[in-house]
Amino acid sequence: MSTPTRRRLMRDFKRLQSDPPGGISGAPCPDNIMVWNAVIFGPADTPFEDGTFKLVLTFDETYPNKPPTVRFASKMFHPNVYANGELCLDILQNRWSPTYDVAAILTSIQSLLHDPNPNSPANAEAASLYRENRKEYVRRVRETVESSWE
Amino acid sequence: MDTDIEDPTDWPAEFAHLRETDQLLRCPICKEYLDTAMASANCGHTFCSLCVRRCLSQKTQCPMCHDQLTESDLQPSRLIDSLVKSFKQGRRQLLDTLTRNPQSPAPAQNGHRKRPRIQTRSSTRTAEGMLPTPQATSDRLAAADLSSDNELPAATDGEYLGSSPSSVQIIDDDDATLRGSSRRAKPTMVSCPSCGAKVRESTINSHLNRCLAGKTTEPDSKNFLRSRRTVPLSTGASRLPKPTKLAYKLLTESKLRKVLKELGIRATGDKHQMQARHSEWSPVSDRQLLKRLDVWESTASKPDATKTLATQRDVDRACSQICQHASTARRPVVASIPESPPSSQV
């Protein structure tokens, strides 16, 4: 059954294929357009460089009026990512706008890797290392980068 | 994936301006072409009426700039509606033309073919003293392509020319002639062979067309007035009562049920369900769209179902699929910070 949500998701997919932003890719599951797999490549000149971080996006029929649920499937060490992979990102919560599409969500997450916000930490250890011991923070992030290749 | 989904990226990359035009005529929310465009009086952002009203029922701010926005700030934008309509009509044709032969588009070739004909014709007319008598006009018509299938009602033609099939051709020719002679800028006045009125030489042929079609000199304005008088009457009768906002908290369940029944909306379920149904219905002010409410209800009541569908099993499978692709994904990362992502402060 085609609903506005499904049509919008197919449109998002078409856009992502025909005009992909750099360093991200994503596609719906072949048998369920409401679940998407995505990969974000770690931005250059950040500790996340060379990482291939996998995410799962889960939509329901309230999209795009409500944001999807986004979760990292890869292990992450980032001030704004919880241990279970969930993100603390304003545009996926109170700053969500129905004008965002999948490409916008993924590019936002990509820029979050580049530019963490240690003031609202989801991972307290990562946040304090980011503030106080950048060298150790980078080392821990590099570990997750390597594990993201597996 | 789906060929019926039209996207600005359908336009070849070298026609960036067309991509942009296509993008601008779309709703930022549903990404479809704007349907009943409504513009914010404050910030000017434009959306489909239904899309923006649905948003505003949740949050009273502009989906684009997050400025304060309420339904009373929305204004219809008929110009945009007309633009969307005509763009949609020409889209396929233009796209076909551009993708088939982007170097020399067909319309330009047509223009080249026409120009020599215009010049010979206007030079003949100069020799005749710039007075297209009925005889001259019918000569021209006889010379024009008679194979055209389009024709005006024979009665209006027969009065002057005696030959009907070519009357449409004259429109075509005269448009061209108009362009040809206006380039020369000679504002000579001539009298219309049909009604005798003094008309500019450059517009005599289009004026003559109107005369031949049996219209008076100002047909458009009259039609306009007539349509303005009749349209509201005809649509007003079938219009539903304007949706009103309800203070759900002040209504008892039975009162809300009564309101829904009066509006012709299904009045089943508990108060919460009826409230959700009414607030979804509010932006939809047309009886035909009531069936969309049923579709919405059958899908919107399922979020839990879709969530269970997309639970651990799907997520696990998704993860394993990504992991399979991980080897292909392992390559140097390109510089990848986008120019303008949505703000990403936490």
Automatic annotation (TrEMBL), chain A:
<keyword id="KW-0808">Transferase</keyword>
<dbReference type="GO" id="GO:0005524">
    <property type="term" value="F:ATP binding"/>
</dbReference>
<dbReference type="InterPro" id="IPR050113">
    <property type="entry name" value="Ub_conjugating_enzyme"/>
</dbReference>
<dbReference type="Pfam" id="PF00179">
    <property type="entry name" value="UQ_con"/>
</dbReference>
<keyword id="KW-0067">ATP-binding</keyword>
<keyword id="KW-0833">Ubl conjugation pathway</keyword>
<dbReference type="GO" id="GO:0061631">
    <property type="term" value="F:ubiquitin conjugating enzyme activity"/>
</dbReference>
<keyword id="KW-0547">Nucleotide-binding</keyword>
<dbReference type="InterPro" id="IPR016135">
    <property type="entry name" value="UBQ-conjugating_enzyme/RWD"/>
</dbReference>
<dbReference type="InterPro" id="IPR000608">
    <property type="entry name" value="UBC"/>
</dbReference>
<protein>
    <recommendedName>
        <fullName>E2 ubiquitin-conjugating enzyme</fullName>
        <ecNumber>2.3.2.23</ecNumber>
    </recommendedName>
</protein>
<dbReference type="InterPro" id="IPR023313">
    <property type="entry name" value="UBQ-conjugating_AS"/>
</dbReference>
<dbReference type="GO" id="GO:0006281">
    <property type="term" value="P:DNA repair"/>
</dbReference>
<feature type="domain" description="UBC core">
    <location>
        <begin position="4"/>
        <end position="150"/>
    </location>
</feature>
<comment type="similarity">
    <text>Belongs to the ubiquitin-conjugating enzyme family.</text>
</comment>
<feature type="active site" description="Glycyl thioester intermediate">
    <location>
        <position position="88"/>
    </location>
</feature>
UniProtKB/TrEMBL annotation, chain B:
<feature type="region of interest" description="Disordered">
    <location>
        <begin position="151"/>
        <end position="194"/>
    </location>
</feature>
<keyword id="KW-0479">Metal-binding</keyword>
<dbReference type="Pfam" id="PF02037">
    <property type="entry name" value="SAP"/>
</dbReference>
<keyword id="KW-0238">DNA-binding</keyword>
<dbReference type="GO" id="GO:0006301">
    <property type="term" value="P:DNA damage tolerance"/>
</dbReference>
<dbReference type="InterPro" id="IPR017907">
    <property type="entry name" value="Znf_RING_CS"/>
</dbReference>
<keyword id="KW-0863">Zinc-finger</keyword>
<feature type="domain" description="UBZ4-type">
    <location>
        <begin position="189"/>
        <end position="216"/>
    </location>
</feature>
<dbReference type="GO" id="GO:0006281">
    <property type="term" value="P:DNA repair"/>
</dbReference>
<dbReference type="InterPro" id="IPR001841">
    <property type="entry name" value="Znf_RING"/>
</dbReference>
<dbReference type="GO" id="GO:0097505">
    <property type="term" value="C:Rad6-Rad18 complex"/>
</dbReference>
<keyword id="KW-0234">DNA repair</keyword>
<comment type="similarity">
    <text>Belongs to the RAD18 family.</text>
</comment>
<keyword id="KW-0833">Ubl conjugation pathway</keyword>
<feature type="domain" description="RING-type">
    <location>
        <begin position="27"/>
        <end position="66"/>
    </location>
</feature>
<keyword id="KW-0539">Nucleus</keyword>
<feature type="compositionally biased region" description="Polar residues">
    <location>
        <begin position="97"/>
        <end position="107"/>
    </location>
</feature>
<comment type="pathway">
    <text>Protein modification; protein ubiquitination.</text>
</comment>
<dbReference type="InterPro" id="IPR003034">
    <property type="entry name" value="SAP_dom"/>
</dbReference>
<feature type="region of interest" description="Disordered">
    <location>
        <begin position="326"/>
        <end position="346"/>
    </location>
</feature>
<keyword id="KW-0808">Transferase</keyword>
<dbReference type="InterPro" id="IPR006642">
    <property type="entry name" value="Rad18_UBZ4"/>
</dbReference>
